[in-house]
Amino acid sequence: MRYFKGKQFKKDIILVAIGYYCRFSLSYRDVSELLRERGISVHPTTIMRWVHEYGNLIYQIWKKKNKKVQSSWKLDETYFKSVKRTGRYTINLLRNRL
């Protein structure tokens, strides 16, 4: 992603910090301490800036990838009796437009 070009920290570190903040509802200081435990020293204010800068962008990407079904579907099962007296079921999937 070109959005992370020229940053002091790698893209992965920025994404992990934002992920901790958003996913687990942690404070910036808590995220900073979690990263420090893993050997990465980041000030809480830096994490706040990352969330402000990249939070909306990450949300828009997530929203595109996780689209929900916009309509409902109905299942219709029909039994047909053929000339040779063998019964067959057909299942029709119908889209119900609301």
3D structure, described in words:
By secondary structure, this protein is of the alpha+beta class. The chain has a domain at 10-65. 47% of the residues lie in helices and 20% in strands. The protein contains three helices and two strands, in the order αααββ. The chain has helices at residues 11-24, 28-37, 44-65; strands at residues 72-81, 87-96. Strands 1-2 form a two-stranded antiparallel ribbon. Helix 1 packs across helix 3 and helix 2 (28-37) packs across helix 3 (44-65). The longest helix is centred in the middle third of the chain and has 22 residues, at 44-65. The two termini are 39 Å apart. The model has no long low-confidence stretch (mean pLDDT 80). It comes from Bacillus cereus HuA3-9. InterPro entries: IS_Transposase. This is IS6 family transposase.
